Amino acid sequence: MGRVNNGVKDVERDADRWLKELAVPFLKRVGIQPKQRILDFGCGPGFYTVPAARIVGRRGRVFALDKSAKVLHELEQRAKEEGLSNIEILLTSGELGIPLPDDSVDVCLLYDVIHSHYFSHQRRITLLREIQRVLKSGGFLSFYPSHMNFNTSKRLLESMGFECIGTMKATLLHYYSLKDDRILNFLSS
Length: 189
Ligand SMILES: C[S@@+](CC[C@H](N)C(=O)[O-])C[C@H]1O[C@@H](n2cnc3c(N)ncnc32)[C@H](O)[C@@H]1O
Fold this sequence. Notes:
The protein contains five helices and seven strands. It is an alpha/beta fold. It has one domain: Vaccinia Virus protein VP39 (Rossmann fold, 3-Layer(aba) Sandwich), CATH 3.40.50.
């Protein structure tokens, strides 16, 4: 769990540095661009949602979906402080049907969500099919297989028709702490 046991000040410093310096360059490297429509599934308190909203700008949109009202409230506060009006909050009860139309999203972020703490194998497959449904043709899924075996999860997505278009090593924010790790980008089938 990296440096999660550090003192509050270290954690605050990491989250601050992430939001101020690292997050936007990270998401640009991932491939997020102005005007896109992004789905951040299991967005948590918004450490990826907020920088994605800064990149897509006023003509883009970020759908921030989570089943926890508490983390979404934290995200709303953060977005308000930054004056961002292009984030749409989607509070769900944990169901896997995504409340968005077919072919409506350029990029789906799925970071640190589908590991065994939250998802069984079968639910993982159901969600990935839903993500294929909402992604536009040519859209991509950016996946952080945190707490999962990297190669096994890559093979699972490939077996479902996702095409791996890149592995990226980067410094990420994970549980409020900076960590060096890998993410995977997949084209939808
Ligand atoms: C470990 S956090 C990761 C948050 C964020 N993606 C990040 O990387 O900073 C996992 C999040 O997924 C959400 N989550 C888990 N299962 C979910 C489901 N079925 N539907 C919506 N959100 C879910 C949890 O509420 C939690 O906020």
